[in-house]
Amino acid sequence: MNHQQEWLNSCVDAQLIALNVTALAGTSPSEYLLYSEALPRRNDGRVNDTILKRYEHTEQGGWWCSGVDVITGNEDLWGCFKPDQPRLSYDAHKPIKYEHPPQTPTGIFALKVPLHLWEQLGQRHQVNFTSEIIDETQTDLGFWQWVIDHPTIPLCITEGAKKAGALLTAGYAAIALPGINNGYRTPKDEAGNRIGRSHLIPQLQKLATLGRTIYIIFDQDSKPNTMKAVNAAIKKLGYLLNQTGCQVKVITWSPDQGKGVDDFIVNQGQKAFDELYQKALPLETWKARELTQLTYPANLEVNCPYLQPFPIPNTAKLIGIKSGIGTGKTQVLETIVNQAIAQDQKVLVIGHRIKLVEQICQRFGLPYITEVLEKPLSKELGYGLCIDSLHENSQANFNPNDWQDALVIIDEVEQVIWHGLNSETCNNYRVPILKSLKTLIQNVLGGQGKIVIADADLSDISLDYLMTLSGINLQPFIVKNDWKPKQKEAWEAYSYPETTPKRFLKDLVEHIRQGGKPFVCLSAQKLSSKWGTQTLESYLQKQFSTAKILRIDSESLTDPTHGAYQCITNLNDVLGNYDIVLTSPSIETGVSIDLKGHFTSVWCLAQGIQTPTSICQSLGRIRENIPRYLWLASYGFNKVGNGSTSIPNLLTSGHRLTQLNIRLLQQSDLEYLDDLDTGFQAESLLCWAKMAVRVNAQMINYRDSILGIIQSLNHQINPPPKITKLSQKQDKKHDLVNDLTETIEQVQEQNYQAECEAISKIKELSDQQYQTLKKRLIKTNKERRALKKYDLQRRYCVPVTPQLVALDDDGWYQKLRIHYFLTMGRNYLADRDTIVARKLIEQGQGGVFLPDFNGCQLGAIIGTMEVLGIPILLRDIQRRLINRDPDLIKLSEIAINNRSDIKTIMGIGIAKNASPITIIRRLLDKIGYGLTGICTQKIEQKRVRVYQVVTPNDGREEVFQQWLLRDQKSPGSSEPWFEEYLNLKVKIQDSETSVNHIQLSLDFS
Questions:
Q1: Are residues 274 and 315 located together in one domain of the fold?
Q2: What's the whole-model pTM score?
Q3: What are 103-115's pLDDT values in tens digits?
Q4: Can you give the residue range of the structural domain that contains 795?
């Protein structure tokens, strides 16, 4: 194949090829390659025979490519030659595909660009160029100076000249590196030791103009070692480009769509690349996404729809299994467990959801921990428990030293670890749990035991974390199943693009009306949620009175009066009795529904609460290949920490907040602070940060993240189909209200009000009844309502009314607590924070997990509100507020200059150009207050809007009086759990936190 056709096959413009690519043969290649003065030469100046011999293969011909030297603007001497007959490398004996001039620094391919492509690129970026061209014969050399002079033109960086040519042809300014690491230099001494900081090569430095957006577009590869190398190069290059003031983005795609960007354009078309370009990820977001990868080499790699049992070498201690949803991971684990039991080896199963651990234990023939409590002898073979119980004060009385040589099974390991590190249910005992986990891992991997972890989304994070906990230098045994559904096995998935699920729900109703039997996955269950399981159950039951509907969520699974009670263990038998099944995230993982020929479709309404991987897990619970209908929020809101996608940013901001909280507590003379271990398990904190930024990155582009995972599994994404409706007469018969959303809202409101009424009227529990009932896993609706009422009574110290129930569900407590300590209860803030800190420190025996510690302290929040002048505004409710007020302008300057700290402390995002009124509104919302526009006023010939603070009429004053009475009697007792500390005889000094101290701590000035 001639060189021109090779480049044309990569979608490169013919004129661009003619300007940059030359066919060479005979001695010509050597003349282009061997120009360096550093090459060994004979006395007559000719390159010596050894070098000529090395390059004699080039005489057989090939093509040469070079471009423009962006430093000088002249034609570049440096380039590359692709020989028709490549030589073999000395070490790997692999063909050397491209030759570059030896003994000379590598450069970049800044190709000469013909006029029509220059014009096309100028139009794309709306930059004029015609007035700047003096001599059209020099357009090829002037193009790059034009790019340098216009930093608004984005620059693409790829690897390989042909790929740059394909991008230039597509209308993008693009240069190429000869290799992924050739964009920068790292100074080293003769021994190869690093002796200085890495820096961009001069050519890139010239192009990396302040403010330019740069897209890194390297090859996509599925080989673990190659993935690691490419990722490392992107991080390094991206960091250096960021340092110059450029905004760096990364473009990726699935390897099966083409390895290089030219392959992608050939296979998928330029329009598909344009879409990729628009969806490019900022560097930090890409780095977070990259944390989903598994780059450890596989010891056993297969490609089969159903994983088969495999032999585990005796030397293997940590076994990781990565295999897709529905490929039989649990069956393989069952075989491993059976072998262990046959050898009298104890087995410990760790999970994150009670019902799922119960189910897997049933398959393994092991008891769940509650069965062990009833029948102590049943634990001889081992048992299963949730990670929440992995400490000595739990019902399991867990002792990690009992499992020295055991087999430990952790299915869905990514979610189990994340649950242990971040779940609210582990808050009170997080440190004991993590200590116990670390000792367990050390005992098992340091003894004769084994740990087997499995997950469809197994990543380096989980493996790194467990190995770091062990403290042992070991190599994991990795089993990787690369199977993806073939075209005939792939789902037909239909994605609804609307901002609300209105059309999605109308189609669901029509599907049911026409005899469809859907399996519906929802994000919520509470009656307060418009799209939760309970609301949809009520609505659909009214629409289809004869339909059998099963609601599966955490309440129905543990309610002995409900049809879903304990159905997890026999779902395949139960579900066939129902026409419609509504599920919450309670069965998003660990469940295989193999029922065939019953359900006609799977529907998923994802509101942005669960992680994208969890959504995809829930879609895969039904193993049968039936259509999937998806409404996915475009943006997720369930972010972690300050929402950052940068590990350093997340950890640094967290450490700063910790130091501030400690300084505030020191004013309370908390005696534990001197021995406080803020560096507790750095490996756990790092793992938390990695998983947190991964979640945050996925939440930014929530819908695209989910669809991307689905497409990577070879499933097809289509626009939603048009579902043919029944006749208008039948339509009216089945839907008395035309607007479906309105109908659902009415159903939700009626049911929710009834629930609030029921809670307020339920008989009150005594303290003893409450303690007994709270420990029970199985509860009826009445018992749950009684527990809720008891909690509300203790929390607010006022009679429980339907309004109070609704306010509490809407986050009233968090707002009132800040408002109380900001005003009436200010003198008791230090006492409150001291008690909370004491509780965590005692339970952690001196250690605290920093995210929990920071999350439980209020001093920094209150101090920030004070610095920004919120108490002053609350004292002058009648004041008229205008954006031009000097004190409000000062407030906004402080807030904007410290927006990163405010985001960390208060969870409030403030834009760089936010107005004072916008900032005040965000701050007032934290205490349930608002702003309203009352009029306009003419100032300096301009009309400006005037605002006033809106005081909520929600009865909070009565609550504050009760809290104040409790605190006056016992400082800190306004917190519901204060009674736990009465017997500690805590001596707490009354001290009011200084505003100036807060200012100093946050650098607010």
A1: no
A2: 0.84
A3: 999 999 999 999 9
A4: 762-809
